[in-house]
Write a structure and sequence with these properties.
7-stranded mixed β-sheet, globular, alpha/beta, single chain, 7 strands
Length: 210
């Protein structure tokens, strides 16, 4: 991308941010990003998060989901977070910085969990989007498949899974895999998701290995 096009893109992004009521509200409430409202909407409808739970947050930076989840689970709960980007320290949240697609980072996460059986795995991970669907979709599916793979290693029986997905090539096969291991599976697009975004959230409850 040329410097001129990059500058124009940055101006458009800044204009959109300044006009976005969710960005303003997140700032007022002390959350790092507008993404917190997506999880709040899911919680309002599904009531998945409770005091004392153990949660893994993938793609956590800048930290809005981890921050609100740590409030929901309270002092008796545990929150583990991972992202390739740095994240400001959040009380009660154990943060690991690294690329989830790197095997060493994946193994480090398992080491930190030390066999902890989790109540929920949540993932807001997404690749850096190029705008070319044939390029972006495989990258997105790799991330959701890896998130699902770790679910099978760390979730308790009857645990739950929330993951950001983009429908396209590979999605239907992934959906079948998830349905084979969870009692109920549904898709939601929160009102706070941008209208132009293709993102949805897959919500799976009632985990079982077979």
């Amino acid at each position: 991308m040329s410097r001129k096009k990059r500058s124009s893109s940055q101006r458009k992004w800044l204009k959109r941010q300044l006009a976005d009521p969710y960005v303003k509200k997140a700032n007022e409430l002390g959350y790092p990003s507008r993404a917190v409202f997506k999880l709040m909407e899911i919680q309002e409808k599904e009531r998945l998060f409770k005091k004392g739970m153990s949660i893994l947050d993938l793609g956590a930076a800048p930290g809005s989901w981890s921050k609100v989840v740590s409030e929901w689970v309270g002092d008796d709960g545990s929150v583990y977070s991972l992202d390739i980007l740095p994240m400001q320290e959040i009380p009660g949240v154990h943060f690991i910085q690294g690329d989830f697609t790197d095997e060493n980072v994946y193994l480090e996460l398992l080491r930190v969990l030390e066999g902890t059986q989790l109540d929920l795995v949540i993932s807001d991970m997404a690749p850096n989007m190029s705008g070319i669907r044939t390029v972006d979709q495989p990258k997105s599916m790799l991330l959701v498949e890896m998130a699902f793979d770790i679910c099978k290693k760390v979730l308790k029986q009857e645990g739950a899974f929330i993951v950001k997905v983009f429908q396209g090539e590979g999605f239907e096969a992934f959906l079948r895999q998830v349905k084979a291991h969870f009692s109920t599976v549904k898709l939601r697009k929160p009102v706070s998701s941008r209208a132009a975004s293709r993102e949805q959230y897959l919500i799976a409850k009632g985990f079982h290995l077979s």
